[in-house]
UniProtKB/TrEMBL annotation, chain A:
Domain named Penicillin-binding protein transpeptidase: residues: 268-587
Primary site of residence: membrane
Cited NCBIfam families: pbp2_mrdA
Domain Penicillin-binding protein dimerisation, first and last residues per copy: 62-235
Subcellular location: Membrane
Keyword Glycoprotein: no
Keywords: Carboxypeptidase, Hydrolase, Membrane, Protease
Taxonomic source organism: Sphingomonas limnosediminicola
Lineage of producing organism: Bacteria, Pseudomonadati, Pseudomonadota, Alphaproteobacteria, Sphingomonadales
Pfam families with a match to the protein in the record: PBP_dimer (PF03717), Transpeptidase (PF00905)
Superkingdom field: Bacteria
Protein name: Penicillin-binding protein 2
UniProtKB/TrEMBL annotation, chain B:
Classification via NCBIfam families: rodA_shape (TIGR02210)
Keyword Transmembrane: yes
UniProt pathway: Cell wall biogenesis; peptidoglycan biosynthesis
Protein name stated in the entry: Peptidoglycan glycosyltransferase MrdB
Transmembrane segments: 18-37, 49-66, 72-94, 139-157, 164-185, 272-290, 302-326, 338-359
Main localization, broad class: membrane
Gene: rodA
E.C. number: 2.4.99.28
Membrane-topology descriptor: Multi-pass membrane protein
Keywords annotated in UniProt: Cell inner membrane, Cell membrane, Cell shape, Cell wall biogenesis/degradation, Glycosyltransferase, Membrane, Peptidoglycan synthesis, Transferase, Transmembrane, Transmembrane helix
Subcellular localization: Cell inner membrane; Membrane
Reactions catalysed: [GlcNAc-(1->4)-Mur2Ac(oyl-L-Ala-gamma-D-Glu-L-Lys-D-Ala-D-Ala)](n)-di-trans,octa-cis-undecaprenyl diphosphate + beta-D-GlcNAc-(1->4)-Mur2Ac(oyl-L-Ala-gamma-D-Glu-L-Lys-D-Ala-D-Ala)-di-trans,octa-cis-undecaprenyl diphosphate = [GlcNAc-(1->4)-Mur2Ac(oyl-L-Ala-gamma-D-Glu-L-Lys-D-Ala-D-Ala)](n+1)-di-trans,octa-cis-undecaprenyl diphosphate + di-trans,octa-cis-undecaprenyl diphosphate + H(+)
Cell wall biogenesis/degradation found in the keyword field: yes
Family: Belongs to the SEDS family. MrdB/RodA subfamily.
């Protein structure tokens, strides 16, 4: 390149060229700025307008009223009771310490509560109210209200607490509600509703699983606030929407009756309407009083409940598994008939059945028994022998089709479904060959057979109808179509008759309904919880409670035209016929003759020491004194 | 220029177009400040009005300065400002961390503000002295780099990143117009791209965070990204016509921080919308264009370079502030001249305008005879 001398002329040209470039760049920046501003204020105007609105407007949420839970006749199971509460809105508080001291005096707050309030006030921000006291009496509410003008920042309000009229009778059914935990708040993407004092969400049972229906939509007072949370003015309010009502198939009266009739036992009962599969009652007792949870349960109450060996915190109808015992026999007999066994063929019962170097027992020497007698008198030897002939492969499918081991679509989280064993299952689960003694055990519902009470009731319903009855709890859920089971109508008639005979003159004679023309059919069961010693054999109440057999019963009424099916499993209740059968008798009697049933209940409750409430109160008192705690004050009005 | 028999000649000879334009911008600024204070002339609008009027008077007074006088004070002004900057630095060590002011009794002087016009005048004067033949030589480059580098460094360590960038840009603009070789600008631009990570690592914590958040404002919507996020909400929610005077919720409810200083444009845009924004941008554009015209019409090399540099100073003020407010540049703390509350920016811009008016008057009087 040739070197050119840079002259004034060059300089002048360079200058004007570069001036043009600079001017162009400036104009370009100007255009960019205008373009950017246009983009922000036209193209993205809607987005930013929304953001600016959500900056400006804050919602002070008004919690929605929780939806009711009602029974099939619209009788309330879970409702809301008006309650009174006092909160402090830190924003409006003028002389904090003085106001808190005055409230403490008015509401008779204990010192640790006062300390909690002061602590929460110190960290509170903006509109988040601090709860002073909830569930206070009307008198105290009124006392705070009249002093309103001298207590700036104190808000006394009427709220609602969850109320369950039937108390502990429905504890396991409905679960309970409680204040949301930090984890639940996070899980709901920091739903501000969960932070409002007094807002309770479902924690267990139906209250939890039906939460989305029951909760409703919060409304709120809309206010304009500054960036620092200071209120500028109030805007129009957004109305709240109450939660939806949920109707259950439950018959609340029957459910409560059954719960009371269970008495002191650790037991659950399931009653079904066989036509639709509606669950009419499913109490699990003992239970907890969900009302106590609504106010926040005390540590001691929790300790008492979790320490109880009758497991009041477990829903035994769906979460507990038991050997079915002899209640399996009608289904087993059905399977035998299906496999071609002649029902007239007899097996001689000598009271014991040797197999290899082991001897299986029967609780009596029945002599020669045919199928009807084997069911009626619950002869084990007959089933050992017949089932052994047919083999487990042919038995298990029938037992499963009757409902054992089946999963039901019910709105509960912790259901357990048990097992119906067969050789293939044994190999998969325990990696061993199926043995003859497995068939023997299975034939009388022992060994690996595990069921829950719901399945037992379903089995009764399916034996009653010959159809695939599917239990249902939510009334608005469509009734599942009931297919016919692969059973012979003739076999079914025979089994029903045999089950009627069980109640008429067999092992469950105690379950006979005191009604003309309505006969119950059923089957007792006694499930061993451990290997019996010879001394214990035939002496069911001798052992410690924990070691006693479970008492089972399943049945349906009327036997010739079934309408209701029911099952009960009484933990460590002893002989099936002695405890579970009369319990189902009274339960089903209630459906036909309330007067008689209630009379029975009254005499029963007198025998065990009073009503459910009375017994619960006594139990609590004795637990408290045993644990060195002062007696509780008389219950709130 | 107004020619009328009634108006006395000295007054008629003032560049009234510019004065009306500047006064218009300032008045609009006062209206915005009035609204930012929730519809009150206290505490900003009144004070700002007084400061502006004062400096407008000074600027008009400066317009009678001769170009030779300006030329003569260029180097001394630079020297004095540099000494003051060193003084600030020295005192800053004595007192707490970031000291940008020099306390001289009742007046708090911010020497870095003076450096903006001073560097422009100095470099213009320097390149006037460099013969055309020498312009592509090393000896035309290193003194300018030194003249620019020393104050820029002193301001950077104050620390005042915004002013440092402004001073650098003003100086570089003059050097560019002086005709220095291309590679001198293209090279460093490439170097900056390479060196950016290194500079980043040397930054102060809060400066670095601003860069981080600028690149991803949503990463910290409640912290350092809050300014940008709220500013964009204010501008975006204003729409075409704005929410109306005194109806800006972002600024009135304090969601927009610094709504009367660095982010005053967002406050304005929320209430006056795109229309107000374009009007303001165009008004500034007209002022800058006027300044660039002064440069183009100037017959002397000093006048050309000085006028262009001074106009560029105003341009950089406006463009950096607006890019920052609209989320196109990191938040570096550059006010919007004549609109943002605060005397420093008004002072600098009015000094620039005063000098520009002086240069313009020169063209109308002296140059014609030349």
């Amino acid at each position: 390149m040739k070197h050119v001398r840079f002259t004034n002329a060059h300089q002048s040209i360079t200058f004007s060229r570069r001036m043009m470039l600079l001017g162009g760049a400036q104009a370009g920046v100007g255009a960019l700025l205008i373009g950017r501003m246009g983009w922000l204020s036209i193209a993205q105007n809607a987005k930013y307008q929304l953001l600016s609105e959500s900056n400006r407007v804050q919602l002070i949420p008004v919690p929605p009223r929780r939806g009711w839970i009602v029974d099939r006749n619209n009788k309330p199971i879970a409702i809301n009771k008006a309650s009174f509460r006092v909160d402090i809105i830190p924003q409006q508080l003028v002389d904090g310490p003085k106001v808190v001291a005055q409230l403490a005096k008015l509401l008779e707050l204990p010192p640790d509560e006062v300390e909690r309030i002061n602590r929460e006030l110190a960290v509170s921000r903006g509109f988040q109210p601090v709860s002073v006291s909830d569930n206070i009496s009307y008198e105290k509410y009124a006392a705070v209200t009249v002093r309103g003008p001298e207590l700036p920042g104190v808000a006394a309000s009427r709220g609602f607490t969850r109320f369950y009229p039937a108390g502990s009778a429905v504890g396991q059914l409905v679960g309970y509600v409680g204040t949301a935990s930090a984890a639940e708040y996070e899980k709901e993407h920091k739903n501000p509703l969960l932070l409002i004092p007094g807002v309770k969400i479902g924690k267990e049972g139906l209250e939890q699983t039906l939460e989305s229906t029951l909760r409703g939509e919060p409304g709120g007072q809309r206010v304009e606030v500054t960036a620092h949370g200071k209120l500028v003015k109030e805007l129009e309010a957004k109305p709240d929407r109450s939660g939806g009502t949920v109707q259950l198939t439950i018959d609340a009266d029957l459910h409560e009756y059954t719960a009371r009739r269970i008495g002191e036992q650790s037991c659950s009962v399931v009653v079904l309407d066989v036509n639709e599969g509606d669950i009419l009652a499913m109490p699990s007792m003992p239970s907890f009083d969900p009302n106590n949870f609504s106010d926040g349960i005390s540590r001691n109450e929790w300790k008492m409940l979790s320490g109880d060996d009758h497991l009041p915190l477990v829903d035994k109808a769906l979460e507990s598994l038991y050997p079915s015992g002899s209640t399996i026999k009608p289904s087993m007999a059905m399977a035998l008939l299906n496999a071609g066994i002649d029902r007239k063929q007899r097996v001689n019962c000598t009271g014991s059945y040797p197999l290899g170097n082991h001897v299986f027992h029967c609780d009596k020497r029945h002599g020669p028994v045919d199928m009807d007698a084997a069911i009626v008198h619950s002869c084990d030897i007959y089933f050992y022998d017949m089932c052994r002939r047919v083999g487990a492969e042919k038995l298990a499918p029938m037992i499963r089709s009757m409902g054992f081991g089946e999963k039901f679509d019910l709105p509960f989280d912790n259901q357990r479904y048990g097992t119906v064993p067969d050789p293939e299952w044994m190999m998969r689960k325990y990696h061993r060959q199926w043995q003859t003694y497995d068939t023997i055990n299975m034939s009388i519902g022992q060994g690996m057979v595990l069921i829950n009470p719901m399945q037992l009731a379903v089995m009764a319903a399916r034996l009653a109808t010959g159809k695939r009855v599917i239990p249902r709890l939510l009334k608005n859920k469509p009734v599942a179509p009931q297919e016919h089971l692969e059973v012979d109508a003739d076999h079914l008639t025979f089994i029903r008759q045999a089950m009627a005979n069980v109640v008429d003159h067999g092992t469950a004679a105690a379950a006979k309904l005191p009604l003309d023309g309505i006969q119950m059919a059923g089957k007792t069961g006694t499930a061993q919880t451990h290997r019996l010693s010879d001394a214990e054999r035939g002496n069911y109440t001798a052992a410690l409670w924990k070691l006693r057999d479970h008492s089972l019963f399943m049945g349906f009424v009327p036997f010739n035209n079934p309408r209701y099916a029911a099952a009960a499993i009484v933990e460590h209740g002893g002989f099936g016929a002695a405890v579970a059968a009369p319990l189902i008798r009274d339960t089903l009697l209630f459906l036909y003759d309330k007067q008689k049933a209630l009379a029975n209940l009254q005499s029963f409750e007198q025998g065990i020491g009073g009503t459910l409430e009375e017994r619960n109160a006594r139990k609590t008192a004795s637990w408290r004194s045993a644990n060195g705690l002062p007696a509780l004050p008389p219950t709130k009005a | 220029m107004i020619t009328s028999a009634i108006i006395p000649k000295p007054l008629a000879r003032l560049p009234w177009r510019l004065i009306f334009l500047v006064a218009g911008i300032a008045t609009f600024g006062l209206i915005v400040l009035y609204s930012a204070a929730g519809g009150s002339i206290q505490p900003w609008a009144m004070k700002q009005a007084i400061v502006f009027t004062g400096f407008l008077g000074i600027a008009v007074g400066m317009s009678w300065m001769k170009e030779t006088t300006i030329k003569a004070i260029a180097f001394p002004l630079y020297a004095v400002t540099l000494v003051m900057l060193i003084g600030v630095e020295a005192l800053g060590f004595v007192s707490k961390g970031a000291q940008r002011w020099l306390d001289l009794g009742p007046i708090r002087l911010q020497p870095s503000e003076f450096m903006k016009p001073a560097i422009v005048l100095t470099l213009a004067r320097f390149y006037e002295l460099v013969p055309a033949a020498e312009i592509r030589k090393w000896r035309a480059i290193w003194p300018a780099m030194l003249l620019l580098g020393v104050p820029a460094f002193l301001i950077l360590v104050q620390p005042d990143l915004g002013t440092c960038i402004m001073v650098m840009l003003c100086g570089v603009t003059v050097m560019f117009l002086a005709g220095l070789p291309w590679w001198l600008f293209a090279g460093p631009a490439a170097a900056v791209a390479v060196a950016a990570p290194i500079v980043y690592s040397m930054m102060h914590g809060y400066q670095r965070k601003r860069i981080d958040v600028f690149l991803d404002p949503e990463s910290d919507p409640l912290g350092a990204g809050y300014h940008i996020a709220q500013s964009k909400i204010a501008i975006g929610s204003g729409g075409i016509w704005g929410k109306g005077f005194l109806h800006g919720s972002q600024s009135h409810l304090d969601y927009l921080p610094e709504g009367h200083t660095d982010f005053v444009f967002a406050t304005m845009a929320e209430e006056w919308g795109l229309v107000g924004g374009i009007l303001l941008i165009c008004a500034f554009g007209a002022v800058i264009r006027w300044g660039m015209r002064v440069s183009q019409n100037s017959r002397t090399r000093f006048g050309q370079l000085a006028a262009a540099g001074l106009s560029a100073t105003i341009f950089f003020y406006v463009s950096i502030n607006l890019m920052m407010v609209m989320g196109l540049a990191p938040v570096v703390g550059v006010p919007l001249p004549l609109v943002s509350f605060g005397g420093s920016a008004v002072m600098t811009v009015m000094l620039c305008l005063g000098l520009l008016m002086a240069l313009e008057r020169q063209q109308r009087t002296v140059s014609r005879l030349a």
